[in-house]
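[Discussion] Sanity-checking designs against the backbone

I'm trying to build intuition for which residues belong where. Below is a structure token string of 285 positions. I'd appreciate it if someone posts a full sequence so I can compare it with mine line by line.
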């Protein structure tokens, strides 16, 4: 449907779907939601999601990109490099250069590509220190998209993502409602009609943050998420170790799960899962 009969998503935890949890313990995420929109009522539509939490850029390019090239789908979405960017001392220019090499291979194979820039972390306490590095990476990504004819999903400019309620307690992954909004914007970028508006603002918060509650939140976040992440960094470990992609091959979608938007005042907590995962994104990852 919409000229896209096959879709492969590659990347890290952002594309895997953290933290858009389902009752069975798996993750749905923006890519699954997008695939559902692309499929419509078309029985021949096929979808693969090779993304895995904790993956660094080189791992994505070495492990996932060759499969996407072999499958040669009608669409590839690529979000990678965020886990690399947030590592202290990382060379953002070099990361962007390696990212571009992957985009160039996909486009040379005639595969349409959608990429994602990183969200603005200004509203996130502590994580706001990454804002400058993410902005530099985003500048590279815009140039890469222009040079290779890739489409861009501009998450930096998504106003709802500037709201703390779009983020899980780990301050790296998005809530289910944020994944829903990102899927809607991606569909718009692809020219796919949507029935909802991702721009709809969150309702006024009934619990405005104070200096004291923010500091308590920072301390809890440091203990629950930052320190374990540092330990994994030092050990070279990832919570993706030993796991496999949730949809390793192109296959038809399962029946649609009814979507109930979640807009919590306080996002649900799921433990930080990666060796350096930012949303995915350039997100960090």
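Best answer:
Here's mine. Compare freely.
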């Amino acid at each position: 449907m919409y000229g896209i009969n096959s879709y492969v998503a590659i990347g890290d935890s952002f594309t895997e779907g953290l933290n858009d949890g389902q009752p069975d313990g798996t993750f749905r995420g923006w890519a699954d939601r997008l695939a559902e929109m692309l499929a419509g009522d078309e029985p021949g539509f096929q979808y693969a999601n090779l993304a895995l939490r904790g993956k660094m850029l080189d791992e994505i390019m070495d492990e996932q990109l060759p499969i996407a090239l072999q499958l040669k789908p009608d669409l590839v979405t690529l979000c990678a490099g965020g886990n690399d960017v947030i590592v202290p001392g990382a060379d953002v220019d070099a990361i962007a250069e390696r990212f571009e090499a992957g985009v160039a291979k996909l486009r040379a194979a005639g595969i349409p590509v959608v990429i994602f820039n990183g969200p603005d972390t200004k509203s996130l306490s502590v994580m706001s220190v990454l804002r400058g590095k993410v902005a530099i990476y985003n500048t590279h990504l815009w140039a890469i998209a222009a040079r290779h004819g890739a489409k861009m999903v501009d998450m930096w400019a998504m106003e709802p993502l500037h709201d703390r309620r779009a983020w899980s307690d780990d301050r790296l992954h998005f809530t289910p409602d944020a994944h829903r909004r990102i899927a809607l914007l991606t569909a718009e970028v692809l020219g796919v009609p949507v029935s909802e508006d991702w721009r709809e603002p969150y309702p006024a918060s009934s619990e405005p943050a104070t200096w004291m509650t923010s500091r308590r939140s920072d301390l809890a976040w440091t203990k629950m998420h930052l320190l374990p992440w540092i330990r994994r960094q030092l050990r070279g470990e990832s919570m993706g170790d030993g796991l496999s992609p949730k949809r390793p091959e192109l296959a038809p979608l399962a029946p649609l799960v009814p979507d109930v938007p979640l807009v919590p005042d306080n996002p649900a907590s799921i433990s930080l899962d990666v060796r350096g995962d930012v949303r995915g994104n350039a997100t960090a990852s």
